[in-house]
Every structure is written in structure tokens, then in C-alpha cells.
Amino acid sequence: MNTIIGWVAEPLGVLLSYLYGFIDNYAITLIVFTSIVKLCLFPLYADQIKHSARMADVQPKMQALQKKYANDKEMLNIKMMELYKEEKFNPMRGCLPMLIQMPIIFGLFALLRNPTVYIKSEAMLMAVHEAFVWIPDLSQPDPWILPILAGIATFVSFSQTQQQNAVGDNSMAGMMKMMRYFFPIMIVWMGRSFPAGLTIYWFIGSVIQIFQTMGLNRWKKKLTAKSE
Predict the structure, then answer these.
(1) What is the pLDDT of residues 71-94, one digit of tens each?
(2) How big is the chain by its Cα radius of gyration, in Å?
(3) CB within 8 A of 22, min separation 6: which ones?
(4) Which residues contact 76 (CB under 8 A, 6 or more apart)?
């Protein structure tokens, strides 16, 4: 696993060093770097959101079948397969974008948490200790402000996703509601121990994702309006 993460982290470290060579400011470099990464991952994220929206459309029919064939599992499976074929819907497809993104996300975390391990540039070894606004050293944790900003951005982003993935199942809906508050709190808690550079990545990445989701929602509304 560490080898896979290293394969991802090292080329990302080369990109980070290359950008720093032009920008000459570690924090601004991180912001540009995060924007590029989010832009590259956007097709996968868009596909994941589209699949979630499709899932919401198909879910009432799935629930009706589950209720009708509650006591006949074999017939339920047959009817479910027929429904997937009829609707041209593959439930496993929603996992694929996330599976592809996971090694990249782990590699990014490894790189930004321990940049000196994956970056050979001497300039970068000094750059990670640069100051930014109120933060005196980006290699050290910021105790409150940045983690709280990251937590708020995560809450907004998670809430947007939750609205798109609204589920009818009460137990699942209750768990999602709990995660809506638990996950941002966890980000604040972890942000207080991570290097400030990594927390900047998470905060900027979450803000970009909020705008990406807003754009996808507008696209979905236009598509729905045209089909009606």
C-alpha cells in the first residue's frame, strides 16, 4: 500500500516543485496545485454525482420491488436485474469513480503531510516552513482558524451531497444526518494536528467542490426542465 501511495505521491511532488519554481510562494502554490488536482478529478466527480442522481430516480422502483418481494429473495433478485436492465442502470458504477480517486487522495495526503519524504528539491525543503497570513510555519498545525474553516467548508459540501443523495430508508437517512455533523467535526479535530499546508489543501479543495456541485446542480435542473 505504501508503495502504491509512493508511486502517486512522487509525481505529484514533482508537479508541486515545478509550480513552486514559478510561483515562489508555498501557500499560493498549494492553492494552484489543489485547483489543478480538482480540475483533473472533476470528470470522475461529475460521473459520481450523475450516478447518484440516477440512483435517486430509480430508488422508488427498487423500494417497491423490495416491498412486493420481501418474502421471496430469489424473485426479488430476478426483478432487480430486470429493473437495472430496463433502466440501463448499473449500481456498481457509482463505486468506480471513488475507487479510482482513493489512491490519488491517499497519495496527496501522504505528500502534503510529509512533503520532504517525496520531494527532493532543496528549495522545497525550506518552502514548507514558509509563513502565510496568520500562520507562522506551514509545516506546523494551525490550532483553530484554518481547521474551523475546513470544517465549515466540509459541512457545506457534505450537505450538498446529502441533498442530492436523499434516501427514503429511515435508518440510512439517520446515519447520513449523523455523518453530516460528525465528519466536519472530525476534519476540525484532524486539522488541529495536520500541517497547515495539508489543511489548506482540504479547505481549498472543499470550496472548489462546493462550486463544482453548484454547477452540476444547475446543469441537472436545465436537463430536467428540457425533458419536461
Answers:
(1) 888 888 888 888 878 877 776 666
(2) 21
(3) none
(4) 65, 66, 69, 70
